[in-house]
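FAQ

Q: What does a record look like?
A: Structure on top, sequence underneath. For example:
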C-alpha cells in the first residue's frame, strides 16, 4: 500500500529528477491552474498558455522551493506573476471569453460546471450571467482579480493570499474587499 506524497514532497522529488512526481503535480493542479489563469486573464487561450508556462517554470525551478510556505502558495505565486506579465505584454489585446459555455474551438470549456441538461432557457440565462460576471471581473485591477480568484476558487485565507501576492495581509484584505465590493456593485448594475 503506497502512501500518497504531499505536494511539497513531490516538488522536492521533481528537484531530484523524478518525472513521475512532476506528472502527479500536473494532474493535481492543471484544472485549477487553468481556471485561475483564464479567469484572471479573461481569456481561455491566454489562460491555457500561462498554465503551460507555469508548469514549465515549476519543472525548471522546483529546486527553488524552500518549504517556508505551502507548495500551493508558492505555485500560485508563479501563476499570478505569469498572468500579470501576460497582461502587461498584451494590454492592447484583451478579448472577453465567457467563463461558461463553449470554448473557442467549439468544445465544452473545461471550466464549465457539470449540468443536468438545464434546457435552452436556463442555459441562455446562465451564459448571460457568466458573461456579466466575466465583464465585471475584467473591470478589476489584476491584484483585486487575483485576490478574489484565490479566495473563491482556491479557498485561500487572507494570509495565504498575501503570500501569493507578496504583500501584507492587510493589503491582501483590501484587494479582496475592494474586488468583491466592486464585483457586487457591477453585478447589481448589470
Amino acid at each position: 500500500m503506497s502512501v500518497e506524497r504531499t505536494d511539497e514532497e513531490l516538488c522536492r522529488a521533481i528537484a531530484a529528477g523524478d518525472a513521475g512526481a512532476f506528472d502527479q503535480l500536473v494532474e493535481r493542479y492543471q484544472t485549477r491552474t487553468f481556471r485561475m489563469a483564464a479567469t484572471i486573464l479573461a481569456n481561455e487561450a491566454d489562460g491555457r498558455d500561462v498554465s503551460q508556462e507555469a508548469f514549465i517554470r515549476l519543472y525548471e525551478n522546483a529546486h527553488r522551493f524552500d518549504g517556508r510556505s505551502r507548495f500551493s502558495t508558492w505555485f500560485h505565486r508563479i501563476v499570478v506573476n505569469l498572468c500579470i506579465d501576460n497582461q502587461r505584454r498584451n494590454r492592447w489585446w484583451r478579448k472577453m471569453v465567457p467563463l461558461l459555455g463553449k470554448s473557442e474551438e467549439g468544445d465544452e470549456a473545461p471550466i464549465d460546471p457539470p449540468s443536468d441538461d438545464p434546457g435552452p432557457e436556463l442555459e441562455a440565462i446562465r451564459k448571460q450571467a457568466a458573461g456579466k460576471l466575466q465583464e465585471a471581473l475584467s473591470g478589476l485591477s489584476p491584484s483585486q482579480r487575483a485576490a478574489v480568484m484565490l479566495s473563491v476558487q482556491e479557498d485561500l485565507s487572507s494570509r495565504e493570499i498575501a503570500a501569493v501576492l507578496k504583500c501584507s495581509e492587510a493589503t491582501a484584505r483590501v484587494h479582496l474587499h475592494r474586488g468583491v465590493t466592486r464585483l457586487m456593485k457591477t453585478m447589481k448594475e448589470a
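Q: Is there anything notable about this one?
A: The chain is about 65% helix and 0% strand.
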